[in-house]
Amino acid sequence: MKAPILTFAILLLILQPLAAQNGETFLQFEGGEGAGKGKHVVLVAGDDEYRSEESMPMLAKILSERFGFKTTVLFPIHPESGDVVPNYQNNIPGLEHLQSADLMIMLIRFRELPDEQSQYIEDFLMAGKPVIGLRTSTHAFFYQKNKESKFAKWDWMSKAPGWERGFGQRIFGETWVNHHGVHGKEGTRGLIDGVDQNNEHPILRGVRDIWGPSDVYGIRHLPESANVLLQGQSTAELDPNSELIWEKALMPIAWTKPYQLEGGKQGMAFASTMGASLDFQSEGLRRLVINAAFWLMGMEEAIDPEMNVEFVGTYEPTMFGFDTFRKGMRVSDFK
Q1: Contact 278, 212 (CB under 8 A)
Q2: Is the Cβ–Cβ distance between 180 and 253 less than 8 Å?
Q3: Alpha-carbon dihedral sign for residues 193, 198, 200, 205
Q4: Rounded distance, CA 85 to CA 193, Å?
Q5: d(C-alpha 277, C-alpha 213), whole Å
Q6: 3-state class of 286 per DSSP?
Q7: Which residues pair with 252 in a beta bridge?
Q8: Which of 79, 108, 134, 283 could form a cystine bridge with 275, CB 3.0-4.6 A?
Q9: Other Cβ atoms closer than 10 A to 247
Q10: How far apart, in Å, are the Cα atoms of 146 and each of 34, 113, 114, 180?
């Protein structure tokens, strides 16, 4: 067998099992025409509370259907039942898709993944590829069982040299601090004009209003290299029309930050402490994250302030909370 034919045969052997798992262990949308044609975005869901299993497929469909990106969505899956179980912290299959990704979007919390899965994340970051971290991604990892893992330094309370406060601090510039707002009672208003020098930043292009029912997170450790794009203020109630609580200090809710692992290439991250599935009912938040995706992939000129970020199909997010996720859901149910 000639070498090109052999190579093609091997490629088929690799790709066919992956294609067969689409809808079982991951969701994949091929995309089509648009600014994103030829680029691949991997979205990683895996948090206990904020329903990333709902929001990540929604974002993937917008990126694919509206802008042509190929998108792959990964989920926390219980290995025995095959169900999507957000509070099962030790399994996100399909991270090998990061090998062909141009961007990773993650909303994960307190994961302790097998080393072979985490290795794909490290390889992605070593290559200096761009990453978006939403809400609880500041405290993405929590090592309770396998403290000897090479990735235990990712723990949100890490004291390892160079990895103090873990993955969130090293990559995004912050770890978990506190609920600055009253959780479940106060919302977050993004102050679009709150950082004067960044009003013209491409990520803010067309973003006119942001409100969400998730509360403002405390921010304490952002490095000087972080470029704050948006400040947030608490609202008195879980209502977009409720008053701002000016007695509380403003907190950054969106920023960019360069990152670099030892021996790796420098990359760029975007982080936002918003991101509950209900938050994405805000068109402004959807636009902010999609603009960030374009900007991180070097597509600044394609960011149109009027580009369509409406939902593809219906989007009916559920209230955040622990152990309130929809039980018995399979990956295909989120398609």
Answers
A1: yes
A2: no
A3: negative
A4: 39
A5: 10
A6: helix
A7: 231
A8: 134
A9: 6
A10: 44, 9, 9, 31
φ/ψ region of 20 (left if φ > 0, alpha if ψ in -120 to 50, else beta) reads: alpha
Contact partners, residue 175, CB within 8 Å, separation at least 6: 138, 139, 156, 157, 165, 166, 168, 169, 221
Q: Is the Cβ–Cβ distance between 130 and 296 less than 8 Å?
A: yes
- Listed by start position, the domains of the chain span 26-181+252-330
Q: Is the dihedral of CA 235, 238, 240, 243 positive or negative?
A: negative
167, 109 Cβ separation under 8 angstroms: no
Q: Which CATH architecture has domain 26-181+252-330?
A: 3-Layer(aba) Sandwich (3.40)
Q: What is the mean pLDDT of each run of 10 residues along the chain (335 residues)?
A: 56 52 89 95 97 98 98 97 97 98 98 98 98 98 94 98 98 98 96 66 96 98 97 96 96 98 98 98 98 98 97 96 94 93
Sign of CA dihedral 126, 115, 11, 294: negative
Q: Which amino acid is at 19?
A: A
**Cα distance between residue 35 and residue 331, in whole Å:** 28
Closest CA to 138 of 115, 166, 180: 166
Rounded Cα distance, 271 and 243, in Å: 26
Per the listing, tokens 């190929």 go with: 70
